[in-house]
TrEMBL record, chain A:
Its EC number is 3.1.3.16. It catalyses: O-phospho-L-threonyl-[protein] + H2O = L-threonyl-[protein] + phosphate; O-phospho-L-seryl-[protein] + H2O = L-seryl-[protein] + phosphate. InterPro entries: PPM-type-like_dom_sf, PPM-type_phosphatase-like_dom, PPTC7. This is Protein phosphatase. SMART domains: PP2C_SIG (SM00331), PP2Cc (SM00332). GO terms for molecular function: metal ion binding; protein serine/threonine phosphatase activity. PROSITE patterns: PPM_2 (PS51746).
TrEMBL record, chain B:
One of its GO terms (biological process) is SCF-dependent proteasomal ubiquitin-dependent protein catabolic process. Gene3D superfamilies: 1.20.1280.50, Ribonuclease Inhibitor. SMART domains: LRR_CC. This is F-box/LRR-repeat protein 4. Keywords: Ubl conjugation pathway. SUPFAM superfamilies: F-box domain, RNI-like. It comes from Lingula anatina. GO terms for cellular component: SCF ubiquitin ligase complex. Residues 310-484 form the F-box/LRR-repeat protein 15-like leucin rich repeat domain.
Length: 313, 600
């Protein structure tokens, strides 16, 4: 059982994140006043997440949940969402693992909102963002998984790129119509983008952005997309997520936010349950590792609903 | 993206053109285009990737071995070193301009407005008016919105140029956004101005220069209208010089000037900038003869007068420039104000003795112009084509200029084929700038050819050369021992690390190094610093920004042993903390130690 102060923190955190995620979307809307209104398809998205550690006295930052990070970006051509999970092993080098994932996501967001992207190639957004990391004067070290889902408004199609063990679900009429595949080198070791110190190049796992798995699906109004880091999918099965999404009565922004928050919260509670047979534990057993309980991890969830709405002309 | 409050329209800019940038050509980090759209850094202060950053700052590039000698006849009031052209959605009479300066403010020195949009400008004669100008400022190091008082603009505009002088700055200036406020109709307190180029204008400088640069000697009567005014201006100009006695221009005769030896008059006139010289020619027969003496036109710098220079100005100057040796046309002729034809006839007439030609950011320079230069300017020693939009293959012609000693191709589209051919035929090259030449796909081959052909190479700029590696550096080290300056900033393939020793070997072999820039080379370590401390006794400038591998001991060894060091950039070196930098600043007061910062 968690101490009372920790629970209080959960609530506080959820509240702060609830305010945060409205960020980029709403601001874009304001600047549209002059643009011609046009009804077209869009993603209405909200993000929420939890850091696995409460004890570390880290300052809460926008869109960072422990070593996870995410972004929601809008542009005339399409809406793009994505998550990244920083690889924690870098702490040993005195490197904050969240920094890499966070920089990767912030750069993706900038690339999209400034129009340096094509909605039909989310893998190129990841690749461009990765190469921009090297263009920073600050020498960044670290590695991260990445999953980016892009809605090409004109084609009414989502294009996805997934590198590593984050992932997404595409849900239509209460059924999962597509689920991303994990890319792992071996059990619990996902594909990852990395920048290694010069002395360790070649010794650190580093996959190229091109190795991201790519898919595309046409979408319909009412489709739901759940994008999450492994903290979500290792602790909640598809069935549980679907069950949870039944609480989403309509696709109003505040309901999407609330559902994203409760989904992340449920995953978080399960992750600390020592007796729960989580998807992660089941997988571990398949690999011959005796294991049960949830998997305490940073959790990031983006819940996006495909809707018709007023948007860019 | 425009916002309207009452009659005032407020809008953010789009970047149209610029003369240099820190960031890579295909990047979104530290690039000039980051000035576009809304502010996203302000009110923070620091060195951020999403800011607009120019290529240089401070006096450091002018003190380096690669610095070209300055031009005579440059008016001291002209301090601009870089520009950014920006456009806005709607044309307005500007009432206020807000420039968001988020790091080392104070570089903006001039703001000009154009009477047509960038698209319209290609089709007609355009007019630029100065809205504000001021001296470079070493402002307090804090974020600010710079909003200088603007002169009334006689026309509605949506196209501005910002000019920058960063030589007084402590570090790179960074800009976030530009917001223009203005009205669709002229403000009420502003008298309606007839937008007629012959009427009196708010922009006296411009008027003065237009008439004088375009004054044709065979058509003196046309100049009479402006003569009286020009006389006064000349008097003003003359009084700035250390000339004793009353100005002669008010008298009917030539005053005391008749009794001066011709050489003295020539010497006095040699202090004038080109428009003043042209104006002086209209004052008297005596001055006319002296001012038209081709020996007054051996070195002309038209860059300060770029808004006025067009085909016709070149045409008028043509007859006086038979002995022209050095010409600076940088920034001139943009938006079709100089054509290939105009340039051709000028160069054909004036190229016999031309040794130095500077054409920075000249948008008219195409393959044909380079061909004209290559076939006419046989004595050319220095050629600067930075930021010229010429297509890749056009540069090949430069190979005919076999006596070239200095070649600047920063931010051009030159390809590997052309540059190799040029290097093979120009064995005298001493200074070569290939910064941000993104079409060159093998800088190792460039370096190898330089090693084979250009033994006298003194300075080499490979800024953002993505393909230079150990092999290229080895060729340079082995064959170009006279190198004094090497720019290797943002060259990611140069790996020192455990296996490579290429930078150390370069340092060992090039003993005359005065400037070495290794910014963002993440593998630079104490090994390189120790080599510098041991071998580079002439070292003046060192940049090792952005490496995690150097220690404060390594930095200290360089400071202790490189006695001539005046500049050291250790920004974003993870192990070199601010406390240490502060200590070093007091212990080594002769060294300018830079450490930039970025709050996350």
């Amino acid at each position: 059982m968690l101490p009372a102060w920790a629970v209080g923190r959960v609530v506080a955190r959820a509240f702060v994140s609830g305010i945060n995620y409205s960020g980029s979307g709403n601001r874009e809307n304001k600047s549209l006043v002059e643009d011609q209104k046009l009804s077209s398809i869009q993603l209405n998205a909200a993000a929420c997440g939890y850091s696995k550690s409460f004890s570390s006295a880290q300052i809460f930052k926008k869109y960072i949940f422990g070593d996870d990070s995410c972004f929601i970006a809008r542009h005339r051509l399409g809406d793009v969402i994505g998550v990244a999970d920083g690889v924690g092993g870098w702490r040993a080098y005195g490197v904050d693992p969240s920094q890499f994932a966070h920089s990767l996501m912030r750069t993706c967001e900038r690339l999209v909102s400034e129009g340096h992207f094509r909605p039909e190639s989310p893998e190129a957004i990841i690749a461009a963002s990765y190469s921009e990391l090297m263009e920073n004067k600050v020498p960044l070290l670290g590695s991260s998984t990445a999953c980016v889902v892009s809605l090409f408004r004109e084609e009414k199609t989502i294009y996805t790129a997934n590198l590593g063990d984050s992932g997404f679900l595409l849900i239509r009429n209460g059924n999962v119509v597509h689920r991303s595949e994990e890319q792992t080198h071996y059990f619990n070791t996902p594909f990852q983008l990395a920048v290694a110190p010069p002395m360790q190049e070649g010794l650190v796992l580093s996959d190229s952005p091109e190795s991201a798995q790519r898919t595309s699906f046409s979408v319909e109004e009412g489709d739901i997309i759940v994008v999450g880091t492994d903290g979500l999918f290792d602790n909640m099965s598809e069935g549980m997520i679907l069950e949870h999404l039944k609480t989403l009565k309509d696709h109003k922004p505040e309901n999407i936010k609330r559902t994203a928050r409760t989904l992340a919260k449920t995953a978080r509670e399960l992750s600390f349950d020592p007796d729960y047979m989580s998807p992660f534990a089941q997988q571990a057993q398949e690999h011959g590792i005796e294991c049960k309980g949830g998997k305490p991890d940073d959790i990031t969830v983006i819940l996006a609903c495909v809707q018709l709405g007023d948007t860019f002309s | 993206m425009a916002m309207t409050t009452g009659n005032v329209i407020s809008q953010y800019c789009q970047v149209e053109d610029f003369s240099s940038q820190y960031g890579g050509e295909n990047s979104i980090s530290y690039t000039a285009t980051n000035l576009s759209n809304e502010s996203n850094i302000y009110p923070r202060y620091g060195d951020y990737t999403h800011a607009c950053v120019l290529r240089t700052y401070g006096p450091w590039w002018k003190l380096a071995p690669s610095a070209p000698s300055p031009f005579k006849r440059t008016p001291p009031s002209f301090t601009s070193e870089d520009f950014i052209d920006i456009s806005f959605h709607s044309k307005v009479y500007p009432s206020k301009l807000e420039i968001y300066e988020t790091y080392n403010p104070g570089a903006v020195v001039r703001i000009l407005a154009c009477d047509c949009s960038p698209q319209e400008a290609l089709e007609r004669k355009i007019r630029w008016v100065t809205l504000w100008s001021g001296p470079p400022d070493q402002a307090r190091q804090e974020t600010r919105i710079f909003s200088p008082p603007l002169k009334p603009c006689p026309f509605p505009t949506n196209f501005l140029r910002l000019e920058f002088c960063h030589s007084k700055l402590y570090y790179y200036t960074e800009l976030d956004a530009v917001k223009l406020h203005g009205t669709k109709s002229p403000p009420k307190n502003q008298c309606p101005i007839h937008d007629n180029s012959h009427s009196s204008s708010v922009d006296d400088d411009t008027k003065f220069s237009i008439s004088s640069l375009c004054c044709c000697p065979n058509n003196r009567s046309a100049a009479d209208d402006t003569l009286k005014w020009d006389k006064l201006s000349l008097e003003d100009k003359m009084s700035h010089m250390t000339l004793d006695g009353p100005p002669a221009v008010h008298k009917k005769d030539n005053g005391y000037f008749d009794s001066l030896p011709g050489e003295v008059i020539q010497l006095i006139l040699s202090y004038l900038d080109v428009p003043s010289l042209c104006a002086a020619s209209m004052t008297s027969t005596l001055f006319f003869h002296h001012c038209y003496d081709p020996l007054q036109y051996t070195e002309i710098n038209l860059q300060p007068h770029w808004p006025l220079v067009s085909d016709s100005s070149l045409e008028y100057l043509e007859s006086r420039c038979r002995h022209l040796q050095r010409l600076n046309l940088s920034w001139c002729g943009g938006y079709s104000q100089i054509t290939t034809q105009g340039f051709r006839s000028f160069i054909k007439e004036c190229s016999k003795e031309l040794t130095c030609l500077v054409l920075g950011c000249c948008k008219f320079v195409n393959s044909e112009c380079i061909q004209i230069i290559a076939s006419s300017c046989n004595n050319l020693l220095e050629l600067d084509l930075q930021c010229c939009p010429t297509e890749s293959a056009g540069f090949l012609q430069i190979m005919k200029l076999s006596s070239l000693q200095r070649l600047n191709l920063y931010r051009t589209q030159i390809d590997i084929h052309s540059i190799v051919a040029i290097i093979r035929s120009c064995a005298e090259l001493e200074h070569l700038n290939l910064g941000s030449c993104q079409m060159i796909n093998s800088f190792d081959d460039v370096a190898t050819e330089l090693g084979k052909n250009c033994k006298n190479l003194k300075s080499l700029d490979f800024w953002r050369a993505r393909t230079i590696s150990d092999r290229g550096l080895e060729a340079l080290g082995n064959n170009c021992p006279l190198l004094e300056e090497i720019e290797l900033g943002w060259c990611p393939e140069i790996r020192s690390g455990n296996s490579g020793n290429c930078i150390v070997e370069l340092i060992q072999k090039c003993r005359y190094l005065k400037k070495l820039f290794l910014c963002a080379n993440r593998s630079v370590s104490d090994k390189e610093l120790n080599a510098l401390a041991q071998h580079s006794k002439y070292l003046e400038q060192l940049d090792i920004l952005g490496t995690r591998e150097v220690s404060i001991n390594g930095v200290r060894r360089v400071l202790d042993n490189c006695k001539k060091l005046t500049f050291l950039d250790v920004s974003f070196c993870a192990n070199v903390d601010f406390a240490f930098v502060e200590v070093c600043k007091t212990e080594y007061p002769h060294v300018n130690i830079k450490k930039s910062f970025q709050d996350s």
